Amino acid sequence: MLRGACGEKQQRTRLETLIFDLPSGVHTGRHKIEPGEEVHLDKVDPNDTSGFEGKGDDEREESKRLNEKLRELQEIDGVNPQGVQVAHFGVPTLDELDHDFLWRHHKRVPGRGELVIFNRSHYEGVLVERVHKLVQENVWQRRYREINDFERLLSEDDTVIRE
User: Which of 44, 102, 112, 158 makes the best surface tag, with the fewest CB within 10 Å?
Assistant: First the structure.
């Protein structure tokens, strides 16, 4: 979910640039930096192609495409990179069970200019409950309605939702 200062259409367009396909065989995982890890650029090979095998025009076109994506990502208006968070939702705690179904999700909704990625969200919860018959039909149907209402509320408050 992205909630920012720019218009919803602009946010949607820019957020969609976060998702793009890399050619098969390109290995970017080795460049992942863990939280708290120090970055030492002198240890990065500037000639590393991460598995990209293109030559000539292919190489130039792919480089242009990826540079354009990077430029677009860097221009997301109103988003503070330090405000990007991942909200993990595991088995509900006793405190969470004492509240309504979406209470713990409401608490993690992004503020203006923030991006929050919901990991194991309310969608998974209702799906598991329905498929495994953990709750009665009237309960999961009510929760589907609550999710729709929740998302409508967020959308009307300029929060962009991507599933």
Answer: 44
**Domain of 68?**
2-74
- Output the pTM of the full model: 0.52
* Alpha-carbon span 62 to 51, nearest angstrom: 13
Which residues contact residue 103 at a Cβ distance below 8 angstroms, ignoring those fewer than 6 apart?
Answer: 96
Q: Both 85 and 69 in a single domain?
A: no
pLDDT digits (tens, 9 = 90+) for 5-51: 444 444 444 444 443 444 555 555 666 667 777 877 777 777 776 66
Between CA 97 and CA 63 the distance in angstroms is: 49
Last residue within a domain, chosen from 12, 46, 74: 74
Nearest to 109 by CA among 74, 144, 157, 141: 157
Residues 6+ away with beta carbon under 8 Å from 50: 26, 27, 28, 30, 31
User: In angstroms, rounded to a whole number, what is the distance separating the alpha carbons of residues 104 and 89?
Assistant: 8
In angstroms, the Cα distances linking 78 to 2, 73, 94, 112 are 10, 12, 36, 8
